[in-house]
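Please complete every field before forwarding. Incomplete forms are returned to the sender.

SECTION A: IDENTIFIERS
Entry label: holo-363
Bound molecule: pyridoxal-5'-phosphate
Molecule representation: SMILES string

SECTION B: INPUTS
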Amino acid sequence: MIYCSNPSSHFKTYQSEIESSVLSVIRSDNYILGKEVLALEQHFANYIGVSCAIGVANGTDAIEIALKALEIGPGDEVITVSHTAVATVAAIESTGAKAVLVDIEPEFYTLDVSQLEEVFTNRTKAIIAVHIYGQSADLEFIDDFCKKKNIFLIEDVSQAHGAKFKGKHLGSIGKVGCFSCYPTKNLGAIGDAGLITTDDINLDKRIRMIREYGWENRISQIPGRNSRLDEIQAAILKVKLKYLDLDNQRRRELALKFSKSLTSLPLKLPKLRPEGQHVFHQFVVQVEHRKEFIDHLIKRGIHPGIHYPVPIHLQPAYNERISIASDMSITEKVAHKIISLPVYPGLTKKEINSIISAISDFF
Ligand SMILES: *Cc1c(COP(=O)(O)O)cnc(C)c1O
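SECTION C: PREDICTED COMPLEX
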């Protein structure tokens, strides 16, 4: 059976190193916010190319805490896409701010910048650019727009650890970068984890305070919560971070092989943004007869994913409350056609060939 992702195969690749790092945490006397979290934060900040990184409990918290640290809350609006993980929107709502959703560009599945002016109001405080599937949103346009309007650019980098835009790592371009390290992500823990990046040391301080009850020297100075990253997950991520570039290189090679092998078939293949470097968190194609296509793959032991089957503005929890741009047609159209094929560093040659031949046999 081949699934869309396979975190345990990734663990097995680095098993002895991960196990010894976990064991050393268990045998230490420090399980929360100790030397492993601090070391991971420093290594990750260096890797992304920013001065500060802060470990938190998960990717949803990373966005919520970043927004709160920027003093965004009730009465404010935050623009993002409907074509994203529900987490992006859930995080906005948990601050009390209102989510305003726009459509995506047809080629790259990222935010349609031509709708920003339409949805912008004097309550707009930030844009969350989601780097979906491993590839950058149009950061040049969005960054300029944010500067012009004097609002914050927040990057949701949960699907693009290690990806670049114009030579810079994603998460180093906006005011703040938010990362999930859920097990299936390109940099995945063995449990929940998240990271926030910024170059602003005052923001770094506020984020650290909000992460732990708003504390400064164990006195709550601002409202906070508990979103600590634990030492075991930090130790695991510290090991995996060393191999992130290698793993991403492998994902890119796989994607190239899929693209070459499938190019003559009636499938819409991923398109690369010329200014960016894609890290293929997902390899997403569009097909016309999706149900039949998936049934066929499952018969051949291949279980693709769908990211995501229902746009957020059409989901029951959100459809009444969310504001949307006047045209959401691309988001609504692709939701019926997209399929995420398996693409992870541990896929074997045999598995890759069986995926390619199962797809070819369908057509
Ligand atoms: C995974 C993901 C998140 C949320 O991460 P959690 O760690 O599950 O809270 C947020 N945004 C995007 C785009 C994601 O893919």
